[in-house]
Every structure is written in structure tokens, then in C-alpha cells.
User: What shape does this take?
Amino acid sequence: MDAPPLLTVQDLRIQIDGRLLLTVPSLTILRGEVLAVLGPNGAGKSTLLQALACLRESTTGTLTFEEQRVDLRAPTLEFRRRLAVVFQEPLLFDTTVAENIASGLQLRGLAKALITEKVALWLDQLGINHLAHRQARTLSGGEAQRTSLARAFVLSPDLLLLDEPFSALDTPTREALLEIVHRVQQHTRVTTLFVTHDRLEALRLGNRVAVMDKGEIVQIGTAEEIFSQPVSETVANFVGIETILRGTVACQSDGFAEIGVAPEKRIAAASPLPLGTEVTLCLRPEEVTLLAPPAEGVLEQPSSARNQFLAGVTRIIPWGLAYKIHLDCGFPLVAFVTRPSLEVLNLRAGGTVLATFKATAVHVLPR
Ligand code: ADP
Ligand code: MG
Assistant: This one.
């Protein structure tokens, strides 16, 4: 994305009682993008969001918003009014839904008719027209979060900060709200920082993804980069790469390496790393195709993939709408299959299958 930066921070740090909670040497949020911040609990995601919103007193560093410096500890009211924040637990005023949504506009002194018009629009967008006159304290979690989102969107913020807004909701409600937020963002192009620990949510909403661990941003890039080319085993684990193997480059020609991962077992990978390099291999479970093992005496190749291993099925785990298959190829390998594939291949623990994957699907990290 070539959009100009909306916000840039440099040397952002938060230290409390000698403990460094956050260190971000530099970070830019581009105008119109959704930057998803992904990481496990305690990674520092909320701390980062609060620092960017100037809600943490102990923050040091520099913040530039639309080319203007903002004092991180004493931001102007003008700056604050360009942001809207939605938290995991909706913090609603003890009044009606409509009054909650109107509150920010009232503070800004908008004309009454305009407020009514805007509130009606966002009640509609969030699907809560019928709740307009309900008391906020009587709302379900999902309804309260719709109200919080409407209250944020109605302000037409320049930067929307969302801190795990769907985490406390049941799955259908979460999916409905994800779709609404996605649609509204596509429509308004509001620049969004979206904090989540859920990689599917990050993938659904994020144009870029920043992965956090221990108070640092350990990788930032497009969702595609983060999910298929993690920079470390920690990121690989967190983005759902099921097969992570250690090995050594045993052969190198024309940018294709053969990597020894077990005695007599080599994996072909698109990598220019030289002979002898110690590496970590990452392979997503979606990249592995399972086929029926070739019948005795059949020489024809069942697949054009460079990697083909006869594998024992060690475990089959129902995984959402699919199945996660643990395999033993002389090294461990994990694949996903659908129910029809499970049946066609007659997969069962103790059975045998042919596991195949392309050399280009293997991501190689030097160690
Ligand atoms: P996340 O949102 O990724 O789950 P947080 O940003 O809430 O993580 O917290 C990151 C770390 O900082 C945690 O270890 C948390 O205990 C610690 N932390 C957050 N706020 C404070 C504070 N005010 N004082 C001390 N430690 C804090
Ligand atoms: Mg948090």
C-alpha cells in the first residue's frame, strides 16, 4: 500500500518499576489501512494501543500525527477528538443506547438535528435501530458492543483504535460484528489499529499485521508475509504453522535446497542458503496434500510436488470444520483435510498415506 502515513511513532517506551513493558523503535500507521496487532495475552498489545492514544502517562518517545508532533503525555483536545477507542468490555454511560451514541457529538457541540441524523445512521449500520431507547445496562454483550462501535464510528474519527472488541462475544455474534466492521471500514476507509489475539480475526480485517511478543513488535508485514514467512519460530507458532522442523542444508542447486531433517530424510525447499546452513523449516498445514499411497509396482508419479513422503497416520483431530492429521514421515508433519477427503482416503490412525507438498511451500529460516 502506498498510502501516506497518518501516524508515526519513534522510540516508544513504557517502563514501570524498572520493568520495560513496551519498546517500539518505530511504527507507522498508513492512512486508510487496518493495521492488525496480533499477539498472545500479555504481549503488550493493549499497552501499545493505549500509548498511541496517549492514555499512558509513563510513555516516552515521539508521536507524529499528520506531520504534527503530539505530546504523548499531554495531547491536545484537538488530537484526542480525532481518535475513537473501543475496548473489549464496552464502557457505556447509564442512559439509553441513542444517548450513548450521541454523547461524543454533544461534547463536540454539534447541532441537535445533525446529531439525530448521525445517530439514526449508525443505529442502522450496526443493526440496533430497535434498541435506540433501551437502557444500556439492559443490553447483552453483543448489543453493548454494537453500541460502543456505533459510538466510535459516529465520530468519524481519523484513527479508530479497537482493543479486542470481539473477544468477549460468542462465535455467531463475533462473526456478525467482524463483518459489519469490515464493511464499514471498506466504506469509510477509516484508519484502524485493530488489536486481537485471534489470527483469523487479524487475517479477516488486517491489511497489514504486526506481531507482538514481550512488549516488542517482532514482525510487521502483509498478512500473506506474516502467515507464510514468519521471521522466527515464535511467530511461526503463533500464526498457526503446525510443522516446524530443524535441519541442515545437504544439497544446493539453482536456489533449491535439499534439507536433511532426519536420517535419510530430505525436504526440498526453495531457498538459496548454502550447503551446511543450519535452518528451521516452516510448513503450513494447508500446504500439504494427502493422496492414496501408490499401489505396489506403480511407477507413475501421483503428484508433481517435489516433496513426497510415505507417511504413517499417528493422530486425527477434529479441527473446526476440518481435521488435523498428524503424520510420521520419519519426521513429524501436520496436514489439514476435509471430511470428504478423510473418507475418500480412508484415513485412520495407524494407516498409511502419501503426503506431498511443493518446495515453494516450505519457508526456510537460517538459525
Ligand atoms: P496484551 O494486551 O497483549 O494482553 P498488555 O498490554 O495488557 O498485554 O500487558 C502487557 C504486559 O504489561 C503484561 O505483562 C501486563 O501485566 C503488564 N502491564 C500492563 N499494564 C501495567 C501496569 N500499569 N503496571 C505494571 N504492569 C503492567
Ligand atoms: Mg489486551
Observations:
- The domain at 5-238 is CATH 3.40.50.300 (Rossmann fold).
